[in-house]
Design goal:
This protein has strands spanning 29-33, 42-50, 65-73. The protein starts with 28 loop residues before the first strand and ends in an 18-residue tail after the last strand. By secondary structure, it is mainly beta. The protein is globular, with a radius of gyration of 17 Å. It is built from no helices and 3 strands. It has one domain (14-91).
Length: 91
């Protein structure tokens, strides 16, 4: 019996909470375009979430529900293994 390899399925990049964060850390809903990363191209990150505490006046985000779009130019080369991290915080 001969089997034909299954066609590879494109999978959306999954952003999971960092394992070192406390269990009550707020998770973010992140969509990256293009996905997967295109070397040297502008990557767009649509980031949404709901904070557990209100963001105070003067923060660049306002209210408990937020949505932002950020762009980042991918490097021309990447190592075989790499990590993309997205975080919202205050200093």
């Amino acid at each position: 019996m001969k089997q034909t390899p299954l066609e590879l399925e494109k999978r959306e990049t999954q952003f999971t909470p960092c394992p070192d964060f406390p269990p009550d850390a707020v998770g973010l809903d992140i969509k990256m375009t293009p996905d997967p990363v295109v070397l040297g191209a502008v990557e767009t990150f649509d980031i949404k979430g709901t904070m557990k505490k209100d963001i105070i006046a003067g923060d660049w985000l306002a209210g408990t529900v937020f949505s932002t779009t950020q762009e980042y130019t991918a490097p021309d080369e990447l190592p075989a293994k790499y990590t993309i991290a997205v975080a919202i915080g205050r200093g």
